[in-house]
Amino acid sequence: DITRIYSVAPGIKALISPLDPKAEQLCQTYSTMIHAPAPRMAQYEDLAQWIKEDLMPGDRVIVISEQEARKGDEGKLLRAAIDSAYIEYIPLAYSILEGRKIQEPLEAKMTAKGTNRVIIASESEAFVNDAVRNLNLTIHNKFNVVLYAPAKIRTFETIEIENFHNTNLHASLTYYIDYSNAEAKQFVKKYRALFNTEPTQFAFQGYDVAKYFIGLCAKYGDAWMHHTEDTLMLQSTFNIKPVGNGYINNGIRRIVYGPDYSVMVVE
């Protein structure tokens, strides 16, 4: 649809794609296109940077992956982001059928003194669920574990939320609404008053995209595309960067699942 729009209106001054992650590739072609949702690779690169920031002497980085993963598995991109960040890590690959026997080999790769910073490089819900279960067993054996993961892990319904808190999950997300935030509370109240219902994730997204880009246009006029600003909105973070001929938002929001069952936004 975006390609069709450009074909019938090649003189478009700006086209903002607010939702579809697949539209990211079109920024390589069209100079006036802005991709509003942060791509998955931005999540992976942020995770790698986050580990580098947290890494302390005596810590160990372990990357767990699935043997014979499906072609095009996103886990390969996640490992590529870690490699690009020049992080030394210990790999552990196993098949889902070996899940019940992997705890001992996993613990053999861990450190009992520092923190074991773990990434599960897989998009398979069954495999990620099994790996998280094994990590929880290592925690019961007194290993200190911190799990780093992209947004998709939070959509896996088979993983118990308690396991996220046990593993001190550090997640890099494209979207996250902090309902304790005063502005978010105010938005919810106004939305209820106007529409007599609760705002959905799409309501927050529509508000963020409209307010951010219309605000830039009002402030800078026709030159607004050259004056994008790093901004925290209600649900999204905007950090617009040129990619190819167009622009992509690389804004990521970090959250941490605490052992006290809290979920904290990392500024």
Protein architecture, described:
With 267 residues, this protein is α/β, with parallel strands linked by helices. The chain has helices spanning 2-8, 40-54, 74-84, 103-108, 125-140, 161-166, 182-195, 201-220, and strands at residues 15-17, 33-35, 60-66, 90-94, 116-121, 145-150, 170-173, 231-232, 237-238, 240-243, 246-249, 253-257, 263-266. It is globular.
Q: How far is the N terminus from the C terminus?
A: 36 Å
Count of DSSP E strands?
A: 13
Helical/strand content category: alpha/beta
What's the main sheet like? 7 strands, mixed
Query: What is the count of helical runs?
Result: 8
The radius of gyration computed from the alpha-carbon positions, rounded to a whole number of angstroms, is 21 Å
In order across it, which strands form the biggest sheet?
A: 4-3-5-6-7-12-13
Name the helix and strand elements from N-terminus to C-terminus, one letter apiece. HEEHEHEHEHEHEHHEEEEEE
Attribute tags:
267 residues, alpha/beta, seven-stranded mixed sheet, four-stranded mixed sheet
Question: What is the structure about, briefly put?
Answer:
The chain has helices spanning 2-8, 40-54, 74-84, 103-108, 125-140, 161-166, 182-195, 201-220; strands spanning 15-17, 33-35, 60-66, 90-94, 116-121, 145-150, 170-173, 231-232, 237-238, 240-243, 246-249, 253-257, 263-266.
